[in-house]
Fold each of these.
Amino acid sequence: MSRLSFDIVILGGGINGSLLALNLKQKAPKLNILIIEKQAVFSDKIGESTSDVSSVFLNRLGIDHLLVKHARKNGLRFLFLENNKRLEFASPSQKSIANGYHFDRKVLDTDLLAECKKKGISVWQPAEIKQLDIQKDNNQIKVLKDSQTIEITAKWFIDVSGRFRFLQKKLNIENIPLQLNTGAVATHFNNIPANQSWDTPEHPLWTERCIGSQDYSTIHFMRKGCWWWFIKINENRASIGMVYNKEVIPSSEAKTYFLKQIKEDPVISKALQNAIPNKINHIENLPYMVRQYHYKNTALLGDSGAFVDPLFSPGLDFVCQQNEYLSNLLIDYFKTGKKNKRKWGKYNRIIFKANKDRVYIYKQIYSYTHSYDLFSNIAEYIFLGYQTFSVLPLRYFPKRMSKISTLNFITQPITQLYFLRLRVLLKKREKKNKTSFALPQPVRFSRVGMPLGIKLFTKPFDLFWAWLKDFILLNIG
Ligand SMILES: Cc1cc2nc3c(=O)[nH]c(=O)nc-3n(C[C@H](O)[C@H](O)[C@H](O)COP(=O)(O)OP(=O)(O)OC[C@H]3O[C@@H](n4cnc5c(N)ncnc54)[C@H](O)[C@@H]3O)c2cc1C
């Protein structure tokens, strides 16, 4: 039995494990890091659409040669169907320092691990953890690799095992109860028809200002009690999935409902005509979160500790920010030789609060997924908060990457009041048997993205005005 020691052992060689290793290595090249990945070859993964914050993070890692293999994301589109009428709320992306991607995750995750090796990070793949004995400053780990058991020590052990949640299971950490009650059904389709065969013609805004065609925006089909994503990976292949509210669509019926809608929904059926699905995955319990995100010299990153919801594609954004925060704390540990209790305590409070806030917001949103005018206003509200507090500051203050937004004593009551008011408006509509009232035009635009240029400072005001104007109209309608 051989013995080795590492500064940091990362469990999980998916996107978040590799990105953590690359970020740490960029900040502290002397760190001795090992990634343990159990799959010899990655299979298809979901989580393909990125948003602005994660794009800025990725751009800083010097991995452009890997990113260029993937499609650029050209914005967001939300397609509604009310009384058989197609309605759309869209956000084309302008050229910016933060244009997102539609990743082929199998390719990206494989490339990222190879990049880690190139940068001097040890990668054991396939390898499996047999035993973890958590000890302050000196975790003892037994790993099975090439039919051999290798005993290693690690000052830090970071769990990035995704939904496998290694540490949570090992330490019997309980999930906290959540109000959000959702599940997801997802697959990849090959042989997808060209967008022109089912889509509306491209609005001049896309051709004049956007970085590319509307086909490569992250498309959402918005329906009652559920929403669908349609993420085109390339001309032939797309990732399709449905997230459903279990209070509207019972878990036991979700897969059947998914398959039925693919045949019967007037828009989805056309978008997938003759397309061939791969294996269909059903995630019955989508959101979860724990209370504690570090124990002694171990920490949980990303989905190994919490996952809330994929609407607006915030997954990678959140983990990249957590990655930056965690990396800074780990580097501080290696500089000072001790774990600063105050800093780690604050980190835990922020991650916990950020996840709880997101659970609250998503819980509200699921009542409005079918309403064009109410949902569009919520989207504008979210864009306003996201661009103003998360994206825009990054343009000027790169260190704010680790600043994870939470609702504070001002934004929390405003958000609560806002959703209370929306509830009243929804009830009014329901009484009159309507989903939307004021429908000024069938397609509306809101610009997201962080454009290069002088209009940058006016962005929050633009977004605030767009949201407020529509909110007033909703109340009059
Ligand atoms: C329905 C849905 C839709 C989503 N959509 C988006 C989106 O559009 N955009 C976005 O940014 N995010 C999205 N996400 C989130 C995104 O998919 C995840 O955040 C991301 O894939 C997690 O990456 P990861 O590296 O943490 O985990 P994974 O990709 O799951 O990687 C974990 C790795 O750990 C390895 N592993 C596990 N256990 C062990 C072990 N014991 N020993 C060794 N290795 C182990 C696994 O083999 C795996 O390779 C979505 C998530 C869901 C559920």
Amino acid sequence: MVWGWYEWRRELVERVHPNAGHEAVARRECTVITQNVDDLHERAGSKDPIHLHGSLFAPRCSACGEAAPRSLNAEKSGVGGVGKGAVGIAGGTKAENGSPMGSAAAAGGAAGAGGAAGAGSAAGAGGTAVAGGAAGAGGVAASAVGRAGSPSAAGGEGSRTPPVCGYCGAAVRPGVVWFGEALPVAALEEAVTAAANADVLITVGTSGVVYPAAEIPQVTAKMGGAVIQVNPQPTPLDPFCVVNLRGPAAEVLPRIIS
Ligand SMILES: [Zn+2]
């Protein structure tokens, strides 16, 4: 049942398109840290975003943790079609742990981002943090692209029964972080490192109350970097930011990210 529900959610996400905020972030070479479980940053063109709360597109074994083959997510070409701007899920995907989701922090960075004024850039309507700097910030565990598993493990398109692990035979589970579960260690460490090294971090749409994600912009601030916040409302992160821009990510980010 759980597997089927996530398959349904994944299919819904596939019909949604990145918004102007995702696209603005993707134009910038920066590290993207997101609490969203969708793949809108990837589709907008951002390279290896760090998924703090996992991804609907990275199923893994419930027993041994091995990443399931991407083929389990059988890409259905054509899905999504046109429909630019389809709103809905885009910015506000809820975090699996029930948080309001949404926040992006982008840190412009010494190295990569290069930009003058700095804005690294982040966008993500939903919860994303972009940290510029670290050139590639490498892929996270969440970006697992089919390594393990045998083809026969695939449940097949449309299957509502969880496929089984190609290594140990246990059921494959959705690659998202469920309420009460710890965040993926590798992703969190990578995010904190990027934040600590960022000259500029833009936090977007996050509530600023879900820890440890809310700690990330504070890491940048404590290490001497500048934090810019984009959010329609005030948040507990306001005091840590050098600038607080009130508004939705899809409107604000395209204007501050060149
Ligand atoms: Zn396994």
